[in-house]
Recover the amino acids of this structure.
């Protein structure tokens, strides 16, 4: 019986593994992101990043890249600007999760997501009724302001440390 217990995954690992498996449905050549909605120990929904239904995705039509300039992250007094590129064809996994789940199911739930939410997704999640966000890969660009927002809203916000995603679930550069 002890051997059986040692092989059983904890809940965080179990649900994060599912989020990574969901991410394999993404056709984004830049990053696969998956997310799951959990109430108690019950899985209520899954989503991944991709183009809207019925629209050619990036693997078929190419990425729709826009360039933006933003202040360099060094110190606040710096006037240096850096150029960022982002794809606007893709709907983020968190956004798709909110589109395809009901508010009543989200109340008090936990969202497991492969990547820390960006600022826009964090704002949406903050108003969605969830109680906690658990993520694996950090997103340093938005981390400080997202963590502050979650603190203001009283939402738990944490990264799973020492987590190893299931084999063949991460995009290789």
């Amino acid at each position: 019986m002890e051997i059986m217990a040692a092989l059983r995954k904890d809940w965080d690992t179990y649900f994060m593994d599912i989020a990574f498996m969901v991410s394999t449905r993404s056709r984004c050549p830049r990053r696969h992101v998956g997310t799951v909605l959990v109430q108690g120990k019950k899985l209520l929904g899954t989503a991944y990043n991709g183009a809207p239904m019925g629209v050619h995705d990036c693997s078929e039509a190419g990425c729709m890249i826009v360039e933006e300039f933003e202040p360099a992250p060094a110190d606040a007094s710096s006037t240096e600007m850096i150029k960022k590129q982002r794809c606007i064809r893709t709907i983020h996994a968190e956004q798709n999760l909110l589109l395809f789940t009901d508010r009543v199911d989200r109340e008090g739930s936990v969202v497991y997501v492969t990547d820390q939410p960006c600022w826009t997704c964090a704002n949406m999640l903050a108003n969605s009724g969830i109680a906690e966000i658990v993520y694996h890969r950090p997103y340093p660009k938005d981390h400080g302001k997202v963590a502050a927002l979650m603190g203001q809203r009283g939402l738990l916000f944490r990264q799973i440390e020492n987590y190893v995603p299931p084999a063949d679930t991460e995009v290789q550069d």
